[in-house]
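Protocol step 6 of 9: fold each sequence in the batch and record its structure tokens directly after the sequence line. For illustration, a two-sequence batch is reproduced in full.

Sequence one:
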Amino acid sequence: MNSDNQRGTDITLRPMSTGDYSLVDGIFADAFTENDISRLILGNGDIRSRLVRINRMAVRSKESRGTVAEVDGQPAAAMIQAEYPKCEPSGLAGFRFMFDALIATRFRIGIAAGLSRDASKNHPEWAHRHLTVLGVRPEFQNRGIGSALLKQFCTEADAAKANAYLETDSEGGKRLYERFGFREVGRSTKKEANFIYMWRTFKESTLSP
């Protein structure tokens, strides 16, 4: 159990199991429904089911590892990570992901494909641990839950002497990740999106809560 003493929040982190797939789908849908990038590539209206479709390959990948955060027994957040070179879908998994993205984005596939190509150019082609996605339900945000998940991620990466990589689309996210030793290494060239690419070496551990 992790405790955010400043806010008095008791946070329990546990490994994600196959029985949690639908639960984590819902957490990410709640976390990203009003996200600017989600609205850019998915449009307006009810996009929850399409967010689930986009994220389901990462959630269900045999190469990924997930963590669920609970507050007073309530599922509040989740995190997915994977090891290079299995951190991006390829082969049949890659085809399934592109099919899901095509269905989810509908007529906005051009925007989504452009962002994907831009991210691929910035994705490191050497050993690292990839923080694929981290989402906190809106009603649980600003309670130290994201920090608790990040601390676990970075502690495990340091123990394995593993460098780490992630992408964020907000300055607030960037500031949070910088507290844990990540540094900006690039930005999206697409005017529509503010994707920030970040890298962390295990020697740069800054695990303050």
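Sequence two, same batch, same settings:
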Amino acid sequence: MSTITPITKNMLIVAGDVSGDLHAAGLIRALKETDPDLCITAIGGKNMQSLCDHFLYDLASQGTNGFVEPLKKMPLWFKLINQIRDYMETQNPIAVIVVDFYGFNHQVLEMAHHRQIPAYYYVTPQVWASRQYRAKKLAQLTRKMYTIYPFEPAFHEKFGGNAVFLGNPLLDILPAPLPKKYDVKDPKNHPWKLGMLPGSRPGEIKRLAPVFYQAFKQILKEFPAAEASMFLLPDADEKAIASLLGEPLHPQFHFVKDKNYEKRQKMDFLFACSGTATLENALLGVPMVVAYKMFWPTFQIAKMVIKVRYISLVNLLADKPLVKELIQYEATPRLLAAEAMAMFQNPPALAHLREQLLNLRAQLGQAGVAARAAQDILMDLQKK
């Protein structure tokens, strides 16, 4: 990194995946609106790059998750850690803010702690779900944490952490749910809209996209007017993903790049990869089945360390199996198709599930989350 003259109000923000990039971008915007004199340096993704003053690297596009796969990125991580260390020592930032992505960001926090730079965690990782010992480390390394679920501050308090819940930042991004009625007279011949969310990381897409597509082909046998949309990130390579599906694509199947959720919220039912997308779907009021297929060694480790009953955020918030979860060997075209067809055959069941999903929205606070967090961080920095 080239050396520049240190700036009085310089701040570093680091995110490492697609959802983190989105939330960090919202926080950057709010910070700059609150204090226009701030100069923000960032590592993250394209959303952050468009808003910050100095952008160091697009880490979000690297797409790693789990326990084993991040090991492949270690040379890159070492390079970035050295770059961040150089930045901290030459630019003297007033604060460091990290967003989710514990594996990389806890190293950033340790460097900040060593240099007595105030550090904040925005979108605290879900350490309550697995490896709870990490909560103690987070308490030691952060001045304050901003959680995304209302039950998390009490969990962190047990480990000495200073955590607050100001609302879920998805509420700043998602549109209000559309009014929708499932008044279908002929379910068999209705043009049902099926959405597919195979994930944002290459490994997820490779494992789930073909399964989702084959499930759609099975659905067509019973519901011939059904249409399917596979939702992709803006920079996704459609040709590469089409090649994963292995055949000429059905004319009622389409790839969709949907920046503002306009098309997703119109879906009748979704196949969703476990992750942030499941909570987005719930807030939009779109019924779903959740599927997840992991790299085999990752799955074996996950079985040993995960401490919660459900993998989907929707079921965790509801504290019951609100939506069906198909994990690893159960994530098959046959079982996915069966879930969708059962719903298409029973429109009142779709309407009931939609109502239950929308009830979760009230648990997550109100919009304006990034603005509240930005104000809180800047006020906290004024304290001695």
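Proceed to step 7 once all outputs are recorded. Observation for sequence two: The first helix runs from residue 18 to 34.
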